[in-house]
Amino acid sequence: MPSTLEHAGYRPWTGQLRSPWWSVLAIVRVALSLIMRRWLFWVLLGLGLLNFLYHFSFIYLKATLVVQNREFARFLDGFKLTGTGDAYLTFMHVQAGIAALLLAFAGSMLIGSDSQHGGMIFYLSRSMDRRHYIIGKLLSIAAVVSLITTVPALILYIEYGVLSSSFDYFLQNWRIGVGIVGFGLVLATVQSLLLFAVAVWVPRTVPLAMTWLGIFVLLTALGRALREMAGERRWLLLALWEDMLRMGHWAFGSLPTDRTPTGTETVLVLLGVCAVSLALIVYRVRAVEVVR
Amino acid sequence: MSVVDSNLPAQQTFSVMRTVRACVFLFRLTLWRQIASRQTLVNFGLTTLCALIVAAWSHRGHRTAMGFSDYMLLPTFIGFLMPIFAISYGSSTIGGEREDQSLIYLLVTPIPRAAIYLTKAIAVGVLVALWSGGALTLLCWLAGEPGQKLLLVYLPASLLGGLMYASVFLLLGAMFRHGTILSLAYWFFLEVLLLQMPGTVKRITVSYYIHCMLYDAGSSFKLGPRNDADREMFAGISGDSAAIVLVFSILGLMTLGSYAFSKREYTELG
Amino acid sequence: MPLIDLDGVSHHYGALRALHEVTFSVEPGAIGLIGQNGAGKSTLLKILLGLMQPTQGTGTVLGFDIRRQSRPLRSRIGFMPEAESLIPGVRGVDLVALAGELSGMPRRQALRRAHEVLSHLELDEARYRRCEDYSIGMKQRLKLAAALVHDPELLLLDEPTAGLDPAGREAMLRLLRAIATRHGKSLLLSTHLLGDIDRVCQQVIIVDRGSILGVGRIEDLCQQRAGRYRLRWSGEPEAFLAGLKTDGATVTMSASGDQAQVDVPDHWTTRQLFERSLSAEIVLHEVIPEEEDLQQVYRRLVLK
Prior knowledge:
The complex is a heterotrimer.
Chain A lengths: L3 H5 L13 H15 L2 H30 L2 H7 L7 H32 L2 H6 L5 H19 L1 H13 L5 H5 L1 H28 L3 H26 L9 H13 L10 H22 L8
Chain B lengths: L1 H34 L2 H20 L7 H29 L1 H5 L3 H5 L5 H31 L1 H31 L3 H17 L10 H12 L10 H7 L4 H25 L7
Chain C lengths: L3 E10 L2 E11 L3 E5 L6 H8 L7 E6 L2 E2 L4 H6 L1 E4 L11 H11 L4 H14 L15 H13 L5 E5 L7 H16 L4 E6 L2 H7 L2 E6 L2 E7 H6 L4 E7 L3 H9 L3 E4 L5 E5 L6 H11 L2 E7 L4 H8 L3
Parallel strand pairs in C: 3-8, 3-9, 6-7, 7-8
Antiparallel strand pairs in C: 1-2, 1-4, 4-5, 9-10, 11-13, 11-14, 12-13
Helix pairs in contact in C: 3-4, 3-5, 9-10
């Protein structure tokens, strides 16, 4: 390698540096592009897309058939696939399962590899600090979750509204819009904090996927077993997946108020989980480990 | 000439002995590295969670062997814990060494590659069998009487199933660059989804044969599909046939793995 | 304004003392940081980057306080770590552009600048390859490109020639020298290889067990050993040499018998040598103050 710097001419850069908060966007963009480049992740994204297209087509079909024969509306509403809050909740719940599976595979690549391959040095040695790094990574995971759950649900909601005879649908069903955004926020926040916390402590793919699935599958089973043992429904709060679903019902306004665990109890549990996760993340992402 | 002739068998014997000794060392090293890995900690944590679930279940009033099998062992142990044990050690034994770039140190030794693969496969098999057998015994002990009845019913299927899963994941780790992710994908998509499908398509899954063995061995406890429709949906085969399929599949996978590992060029190792 | 100015900087990891009362000041230019494993080089780099607060002491780098202005400081520094520190799956050009964006550059300018820097470092043909597919030499250049992309004033380089073959090492050193001399960048080159520092740097910081053993221009450090002379004479030297030994000098004779290396006590000057030669009636043809090279300085200070 000849001294090309001398021959090619090194040009100084005289631009203006921006706030480090902009680097958060760069982290999100790179994380999303990493996911889009793996075919395996496309299998899962495709699965989510398939579910979305199924609902999308059904709404279109319903709108078309109802115009021709009003009786179809009552028949098709029996499927509870579209239009109601419960339908969107179910759709988002299925999509969230796909997102959780995708994160089990991708967690190591998105977060864990920074601890394994010295990627954290790459980030923290720039003009940003660990706040920006942590927020960037959390937003990356949240973006993946939202792209699979909230965004398609919002598209279906808008599709249903604009294929109705008037815009009254949006006015009458504003709660559905709020519910979609609210449930989406819960899913994105809890999953991003939880995955980040697991991945910084268990960065390799297999242990990470094991822990991630174990949290959802086994805690649910444990909660149910303890409820049967003690006859106390509050043990169901251990099931984080069910807790998120309960928050979904809360957001859509369909959570029974007279039944334990209540919405407030669920919020407290999820806030606790998020706080512990954040503490684990902050403890682990430290500059001390940056330069070995 | 005669000197060379007389020396040859001695040299060969010496070489074989050295290879055997090297394999024994590799076996111990593999065992130790896997036991000292983070997977062991995670396995320990997940087994503890399962133990808590079973302990909570065992406090309910009406407990039967059938209920313990249907609500505890099948979903938590057969459906989750056993494949997890296999995937944690199976995919990381060769796949993990590829990721860490440490496989090259094994490949440059004079030990034949097939012997390296078989030694690692045996080490993984021992670990998975110990974890599966140990966890099953613990869960059955915690469950009390129903568990004691089912321990011997579940043990052969668990050991064979665990070994079969381990062979699959070891092979994937040796053959593919992203074998770990492929192993996880295989478990989620093929094992979990196909088992629920009607017809004979589920016969390509390991869990089908495990279920067949369990239902056959546990017929006296009424394990298995409840009614004719479920039985037709499951379309089971006899426990002996399932065991034979698993044994031959394990042997076949180990042979295939040894061959693939011998022939494969691991370019990513530099 | 000094490039780096530290005053009484100490750092402890629990009971382990990594740096102790480090005080030094260096001017802009190419500076070598040398020391054995565990000497405290990495801790010093972390503190200079503002990634870690020292337990005690204070200091400035490029005029920025290392305690209170770590973020603006890092925007003026390019860091090339020893660890791989690349993101698997990302293409070379995207990685360098990302480095620019993380340093505060706008996206479009970061991308344009990434192409420029990669061309300068002769990685233009490999820019669209994923970085895990690069060879070791290419990875080192990629890391250098990521450190250079935002045109920093100071480059902190941790073992930049590690793992390179002789040709690659030669090229990397030539590149670093060009960056320092032609483009006015300051370098802090942390390495185990004295040869690398000799080739690139004008100043050196020698660190051992958390303490600074020597700082300054390499020539100055070498001249600090001025108490050693090589003498050549004609005549009978016995009386002359005996006199020197009586006065406390150490004499090492050459095989030819008309030359010797003499280590004189600290307070001596060459005048005393000439007086001794006059009284012993020999003619001194050469009195050459012997200068050390960097290796000898290092041996004297660290391996004594």
